[in-house]
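Bug report

Summary: C-alpha cells for Glutamine--fructose-6-phosphate aminotransferase [isomerizing] differ between web form and batch submission.
Environment: batch mode, default settings.
Steps: 1) Submit the sequence below via batch. 2) Compare with the web form result.

Sequence submitted:
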Amino acid sequence: EKGGYDWFMLKEIAEQPAVVADTLRGRLTETGEIHLDEMRLSDDDLRDVGKIFIIACGTSYYAGMVAKYAIEHWTRIPVEVELASEFRYRDPVLDRSTLVIAISQSGETMDTLMALRHAKSQHARILAICNTIGSTIPRESDAVLYTRAGVEIAVASTKAFLTQIVACYLVALYLGQIRGTKWGDEVSAVVGQLQEMPAAVDKVLDTMEPVRELARTLAEADQILFLGRHVGFPVALEGALKLKELAYMHAEGFAAGELKHGPIALIGEGTPVVIVVPSPLGRDSLHGKVVSNIQEVRARGARTIVIAEEGDDKVVPYADHVIRVPRTPVLMAPLVTTVPLQVMACEIAAARGLDVDQPRNLAKSVTVE
Ligand code: M6R
C-alpha cells in the first residue's frame, strides 16, 4: 500500500502534483472564473466581510500564514492568522462581518474546534477548509471547502499543506471576484498560474535525488536553521517543524529580516542554514536582501543550503549547496519550495534510523486541548 515507497510520507509527497490538480478540478471555469457554489456561503454574506481570521494549528497554521499574503493582496480584506490554541483566550474582536477560516486536515483538532465554537458564539461566519469529509469542524461550520488531498497516513502533513494553500487561494480569488477587487483578466491570470502548479511540483520531484543525498550528510547536525521572507517565511517554519517532528532535531524557522535581531547568534562553524530565496523578479528588492543574509550567515561559518529559482545566479557565490525550483509567480512559490524541505526531513529522519511515518510522541489528529 506504500506503492513501492519506503514510507507513506514519501508516497504522499509524490502525490502532491495530483492532489493539487484534484483540489482545483471543477472549481475553475473555462473562462478563468472561480466557482465555489459547494461552499454554501452566499455572495451577499461574502461581500459584507470586513475582516478575516484564519485559525489553525501546526502545518495548517503555516498554510494560513501563506494564505494571508494572497488574501490581503487580492481582496484588500485585513487578515489575521492565529494559532487556534491561543485564539479564544484573548477575547478577539468578532462580529457578523467577520469571516473565520478554520483550516484542518483532519477536521477533528480540538483546539481548532474550540476556537471555531468561540467565534460562532460571537456571531462570526465560519468557513472550514478541511480534508476529511463529514468530520466535526466542517459539520460545525457555516460553509466548507474541501481540500482533495486524499487520505494522509504519515503523521507529518505534506500533501494536505499544499492543497490547503490552493483552497485558500481559491477562496481569496472568489472573494476578489465577487467584491470586484480582482476581476476578469486578473483572476483568470492567477487561475492560469494555479493550473501550471501540478507540473511545476512534478518538476521539483524529478530533481530530488541530490536533495536526498545532501540530507544524509546533515543527519548528525546539532541543529538546522531555516530562513525565509514573505511567503518564504511560513515555508521556513514548515521546514523546521517537519525536521523537529521527524528527526527529533533542533530546528527553527526565522524571518530572514530578523537575523540581526537575535538568531544570528545561533550560527557557529558548520551550522546548516537552509535559505528559501524569493524570486529575483519579486517586488520590494527582497531577493537582494535575502542574498545578503546568505552572505552574512556564511561569513559566520554557516553551511548554506539555498533553495532558489532556476536561473537565479546571484545566490551561487554564497551557497554551499543550491536546490533549484522552477520559476513561479511570487505567491505560487510555497507550492514548490516546500517540497525539498519535506524530502530533506524525511531523508534525515530515515538516516537517523527513525520511523518516518510514526514519530515518537505524536498523533495524527490531536483531539484533546
Ligand atoms: O488536522 P489538522 O490540520 O487540524 O492538524 C493540525 C496539526 O496538528 C498538524 O498539522 C501537525 O502539526 C502535523 N503533525 C504537522 O506535520
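Above is the batch result. After comparison, the two runs are identical; trailing whitespace caused the diff. The first strand starts at residue 51 and ends at 56. The first helix runs from residue 8 to 14.
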